[in-house]
Task: inverse folding
């Protein structure tokens, strides 16, 4: 009797195992792949130095194609003493320095030779040496950049094995509006098991 | 009157018990169905995709491999990757360099939480895309605290950085005193002379004790066979680094040994748009990492109180 | 020498044969256990093929019910000493002939422990990496390597003690004191060590404040010495019922005294822990808060821990009252404390250690169906082993299976049948 039942039970079990559907990994939701372009280590901007190196068209920097030598262009201001950017330079957004204090093109550009830059000390710098110009005001940041604590260095940490490429200020910062722009973050993690939302701190409502 | 337990062939016992034909038949029926049930219960084994070959099973421990052994092992790994992904990789066994000890520093004043490091790391290190394995977790932290429990792991705002928050990426801290190495029962993870804690993926037994021991939640386990699209494979591989892993083993950040032992920067640093990530040889006083640790007034090790003494530092622009 | 070996083989053969002989109740019980064990085997085959993804574990909660059961069963195994100590140190007469049942339970429990650890491995095919000599054994640094040693050592000790005593009884000779008494005393210390080492497995992790507490070891022992003897009380009654083996109420009441005291200490230590966690109110309380009160709307474990505490408290009250001198109430108290301690140590100790993660993420854990089937399978297999051990040992102890009656008669199904402890939880 018991043996008969057991025979049946085992036979049933064998059949169940052969046709089973339980216990298998649950189908996982698709996780979209991240666009490879977003993983490009290139800097946000290209510096004049990069353009020279890449032998690219530099006609945009040919100031005297439009301006006249020996005649510094006049600057015009509105009633709030805000610089009026001429339409020819509408790509320039003036946003350097707080409280509108840095509102004079010739704080940095050389009015007597528009193809160069002029720091306060009276030197004349080439466009590709713009970092020196930045350093003339931003002392501590320049110091950090110089030591490697600020800014980007790419390539080789071991310079015996390859070059370390130190990026310039303008590779990341727009000199006319240097605040680093915000951007959309890449996708967050997709944990294997449904996560609990971590502490909804202060105004964290980012879901 | 005998048998029941089918796993044990008791035909002999049945025979010499001198029992009747009928009971013998009944017993045999139980035995036969029982054995059939055992066999049927093992059916899922035929679904295995990644069967361990004899060569893999007999694979020796990393530190016991002779250079000739290593050559064979690297060739095997290359063969396996090519078979699976259709790409011939270049797998090397890169050793630590003399006079080099790596350290990492991350500028919390600059990080904007864009997660480019997370995904560049995934791409560089051939991490599984689904289920997803990532070595770097970026926490969005409210101003004024270092309590990770207040951090948000899953932020998905339109724009970062958000006002009122800072961002703290966390990955393996490459501790001087790594709890994961201490607890591993089979020496499958150890610290090398350049400070990188590595894993022999072919030696790990998958007990996950290291995962429990790590105070930084830096270790990841392959809960199933990793899946990587063939066109995403990074063919520049190293044995202790980014070669594809198998089901059931641990992995974690190894400071991109395949890059850094070649003199290059790790992938997470290369891609960082803000230059918040700094890496180098701390034994070289002129390296940027040495300069940072020498000149920055405030820098810290995460969870300093657990005594792990990380080689990963967080610093600020002061 | 050859005759000795031959004799021993005959003994083993007769033991093996008797394991397959019994009445319909025996067959039913063994059949049911076999079916459950096969479900477990099938579930494990799925896990082996597809990986631990078929469990409920994740990188966040990287240990689950496997390790929880392991921890509980180490306690059960260690508790065998609570029968050994009265007998060998205090010469307790009542327990003298029963101590072997406790030791056999320890053997079965250790077998289950080893199985639970094995099913938890991501790469069981590499288990040989753990074997000293051919593998790489991180001793003494890794607590897991200590655990491998103490568990296997304890298994060997108990197999030796039980095997030797039973074989002596079978041959009808008095066991040589030097062949087992030293081992018994080593086993007493060893039993404490297996549970202490298992506690150290958790205690040693500085990055997990919930476990990183020196009271975990003592709590482990206290709860083990409660749940283990409670299980033995139930097992002995089942043996008495189905085999007519002579077991006095006095013996059961001796064990009651042990369960009573251990339970009091267990609850006392729990109070200590809860006080320290919640009164000091530092940030490390977070896992305890998750366990006892829930965290950010997550409270999967809250009902479990409070039922465990309730069960333990009721059991404690019953045990302390004279009421529990009646076996009926004693049994209730035993079942309550076994279930309570299983929850407290399994769900209550292992899992909250992972929640939240060291980076503050809260991901909850629920065992999957497949994982549960593997657990049931291992428990069934363990009970199967224990039943077989009892099926062999009871006739030997009763003298019905002895060298004297070799070739004359096998204790048949009509004589007696064993059953096993209450399948109260698994």
Result:
């Amino acid at each position: 009797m018991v043996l008969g039942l057991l025979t049946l039970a085992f036979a049933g079990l064998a059949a169940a195992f052969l046709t089973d559907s339980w216990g298998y990994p649950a189908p996982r939701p698709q996780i979209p792949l991240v666009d490879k372009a977003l993983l490009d280590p290139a800097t946000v901007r290209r510096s004049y130095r990069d353009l020279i190196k890449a032998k690219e068209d530099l006609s945009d920097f040919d100031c005297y194609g439009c301006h006249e030598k020996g005649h510094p262009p006049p600057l015009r201001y509105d009633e709030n003493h805000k610089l009026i950017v001429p339409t020819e330079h509408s790509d320039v957004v003036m946003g350097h320095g707080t409280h509108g204090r840095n509102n004079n093109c010739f704080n940095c550009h050389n009015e007597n030779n528009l193809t160069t830059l002029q720091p306060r000390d009276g030197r004349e710098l080439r466009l590709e040496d713009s970092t020196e110009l930045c350093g003339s005001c931003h002392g501590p940041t320049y110091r950090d950049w110089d030591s490697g604590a600020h800014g980007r260095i790419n390539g080789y940490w071991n310079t015996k094995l390859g070059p370390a490429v130190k990026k310039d200020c303008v590779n990341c910062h727009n000199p006319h509006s240097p605040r680093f722009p915000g951007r959309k973050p890449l996708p967050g993690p997709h944990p294997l098991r449904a996560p609990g939302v971590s502490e909804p701190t202060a105004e964290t409502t980012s879901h | 009157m005998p048998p029941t337990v089918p796993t044990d062939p008791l035909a002999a016992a049945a025979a010499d018990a001198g029992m009747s034909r009928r009971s013998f038949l009944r017993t045999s029926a139980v035995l036969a169905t029982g054995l059939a049930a055992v066999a049927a219960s093992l059916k899922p084994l035929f679904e295995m995709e990644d069967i361990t070959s004899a060569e893999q099973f007999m694979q020796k421990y990393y530190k016991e491999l002779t250079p000739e052994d290593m050559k064979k092992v690297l060739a095997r790994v290359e063969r396996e990757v090519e078979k699976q992904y259709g790409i011939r990789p270049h797998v090397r066994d890169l050793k630590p360099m003399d006079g080099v000890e790596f350290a990492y520093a991350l500028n919390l004043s600059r990080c904007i939480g864009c997660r480019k490091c997370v995904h560049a790391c995934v791409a560089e290190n051939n991490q599984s895309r689904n289920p997803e394995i990532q070595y770097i977790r970026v926490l969005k932290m409210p101003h004024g605290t270092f309590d990770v429990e207040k951090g948000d792991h899953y932020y998905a705002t339109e724009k970062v950085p958000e006002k009122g928050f800072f961002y703290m990426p966390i990955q393996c801290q490459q501790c001087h005193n790594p709890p994961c190495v201490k607890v591993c029962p089979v020496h499958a993870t150890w610290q090398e002379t350049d400070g990188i804690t590595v894993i022999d993926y072919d030696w790990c037994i998958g007990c996950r004790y290291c995962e429990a021991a790590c105070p930084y939640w830096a270790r990841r386990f392959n809960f199933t066979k990793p899946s990587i699209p063939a066109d995403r494979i990074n063919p520049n591989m190293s044995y202790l680094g980014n070669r594809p892993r198998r089901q059931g083993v641990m992995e974690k950040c190894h400071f991109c040994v395949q890059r850094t032992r070649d003199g290059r920067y790790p992938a997470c640093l290369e891609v960082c748009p803000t230059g918040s990530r700094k890496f180098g040889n701390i034994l070289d006083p002129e390296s940027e990492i040495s300069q940072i640790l020498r000149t920055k007034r405030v820098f810290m090790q995460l969870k300093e109180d657990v005594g792990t003494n990380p080689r990963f530092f967080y610093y600020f622009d002061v | 020498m050859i005759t000795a070996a031959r004799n021993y083989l005959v003994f083993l053969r007769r033991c093996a044969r008797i394991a397959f002989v019994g009445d319909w109740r025996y067959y039913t019980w063994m059949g049911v256990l076999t079916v459950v064990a096969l479900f477990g085997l099938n579930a494990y085959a799925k896990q082996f093929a597809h990986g631990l993804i078929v469990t409920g574990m994740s990188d966040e909660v990287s240990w689950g019910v496997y390790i929880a059961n392991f921890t509980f069963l180490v306690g059960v195994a260690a508790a065998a000493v609570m029968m050994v100590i009265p007998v060998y140190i205090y010469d307790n007469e009542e327990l003298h002939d029963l101590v072997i049942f406790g030791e056999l339970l320890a053997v079965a429990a250790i077998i289950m422990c080893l199985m639970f650890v094995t099913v938890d491995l991501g790469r069981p095919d590499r288990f040989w990496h753990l074997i000293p000599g051919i593998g790489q054994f991180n001793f003494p640094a890794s607590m897991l390597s200590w655990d491998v040693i103490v568990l296997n050592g304890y298994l060997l000790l108990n197999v030796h003690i039980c095997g030797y005593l039973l074989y002596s009884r079978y041959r009808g000779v008095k066991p040589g004191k030097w062949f087992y008494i030293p081992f018994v005393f080593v086993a007493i210390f060893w039993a404490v060590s297996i549970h202490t080492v298992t506690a150290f497995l958790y205690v040693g992790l500085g990055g997990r404040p919930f476990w990183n507490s020196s009271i975990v070891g003592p709590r482990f022992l206290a709860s083990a010495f409660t749940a283990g003897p409670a299980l033995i009380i139930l097992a002995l009654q089942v043996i008495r019922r189905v085999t007519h083996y002579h077991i006095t109420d006095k013996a059961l009441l001796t064990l009651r005294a042990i369960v009573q005291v251990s339970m009091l200490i267990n609850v006392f230590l729990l109070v200590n822990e809860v006080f320290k966690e919640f009164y000091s109110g530092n940030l490390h309380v977070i896992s305890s808060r998750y366990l006892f009160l829930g965290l950010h709307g997550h409270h999967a474990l809250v009902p479990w821990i409070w039922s465990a505490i309730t069960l333990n408290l009721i059991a404690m009250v019953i045990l302390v009252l004279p009421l529990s001198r009646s076996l009926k109430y004693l049994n209730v108290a035993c079942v309550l404390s076994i279930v309570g301690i299983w929850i407290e140590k399994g769900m209550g100790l292992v899992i909250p250690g992972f929640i939240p993660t060291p980076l503050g993420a809260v991901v909850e854990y629920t065992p999957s169906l497949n994982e549960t089937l593997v657990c049931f399978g291992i428990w069934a297999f363990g009970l199967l082993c224990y039943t077989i051990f009892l099926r062999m040992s009871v006739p030997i102890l009763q003298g019905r299976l002895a060298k004297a009656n070799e070739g004359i008669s096998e204790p048949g199904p009509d004589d007696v049948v064993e059953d096993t402890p209450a399948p109260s939880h698994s």
